[in-house]
Amino acid sequence: MRNFALITLFSAIFVLSSFSELEISQYKIRTVIIDAGHGGKDPGCHGKNTNEATITLQVALELGKIIKENLPEVKIVYTRSTDKFVELHERANIANKNNADLFISIHCNSGPPTVDGTETYTMGLHTSKGNLEVAKRENAVVSLEDDHEKNYKDLNPDSPAGHILISNWQKAYLENSVKFASKVEIQFKTRVGRNSRGVKQAGLLVLWKSTMPSVLIEIGFLTNSKEEKYLNNQTNRTYVASAIYRAFKEYKKELESMNE
């Protein structure tokens, strides 16, 4: 209990100090982290013909390419550009070291074969069983990490206390995270014609400790045969990447206009 109280206090202090810095700083989107979920020894979820790590990397690289072509002033940093394993905490470290202004993590979903659609997550306490199951599945990869007991000490992703501590780190950036997430889902629904399942919150370790607005985008269910076929098509993956790009462009313009 003592350790839990100390960590909670530390988290609160961190959030308050970060929020103060966030309020007084001017918004300028200079660096974006694009995180292709899973990779290497962690293939993620599977469809009949492909896996999550392969699809997310293709979409991530396409997204970076589109941003570079249309917004050359924005620096793009990939957490991985090949099929390699990157630990969850290291993905946030990459974002923090590069002083990123936005963290975009791209994933594929799994569930019953009839379930389809997109979801975009921000950090927060899960409010439904479905959100909790997504968090557990995405967080389960920590078991593949060499020093996971050290790196995630006192942060058991299966415990309510663990989810509270994880979610505290992103509170200072929640408003802008939700703002970007909402734009992503709007683009998916109105411009690409996807079934949007909306913006949600969950205690996701990949977003833990990232000191900037951060989202995890579930671009479709590989366990649904129609969605797997859709995501296996290069043209459709470009549509998905373009939708995220348009959301980013709109988000960037809106935030930077606050400086004028």
Helix content: 40-55%
Q: Which architecture would the CATH scheme give at its second level?
A: 3-Layer(aba) Sandwich
For this structure, what is the CATH class?
Alpha Beta
CATH topology: Aminopeptidase
Structural class: alpha/beta
What is the N-to-C order of secondary-structure elements (H for helix, E for strand)?
A: HEHEHEEHHHHEEHH
> How many distinct folded domains?
1
Low-confidence stretches: 1-25, 126-132, 134-139
Largest sheet descriptor? 6 strands, mixed
Provide a descriptive summary of the structure in words.
With 260 residues, the protein is of the alpha/beta class. It has a single domain, classed as Zn-dependent exopeptidases (Aminopeptidase), CATH 3.40.630. The chain is built from nine helices and six strands, in the order αβαβαββααααββαα. The protein has helices at 2-24, 52-70, 88-97, 129-139, 148-151, 160-168, 174-190, 225-231, 234-256; strands at 31-36, 75-78, 102-109, 118-123, 196-202, 214-221. It has a six-stranded mixed beta sheet, with helices on both faces. Helix 1 (2-24) packs parallel to helix 6 and helix 7 crosses helix 9. It is globular, with a radius of gyration of 17 Å. It starts with a helix and ends with a helix. Mean pLDDT is 81; it is low at 1-25, 126-132 and 134-139.
Give the secondary structure arrangement, pairings included.
Blueprint: H1 2-24, E1 31-36, H2 52-70, E2 75-78, H3 88-97, E3 102-109, E4 118-123, H4 129-139, H5 148-151, H6 160-168, H7 174-190, E5 196-202, E6 214-221, H8 225-231, H9 234-256
Helix pairs in contact: 1-6, 2-9, 7-9
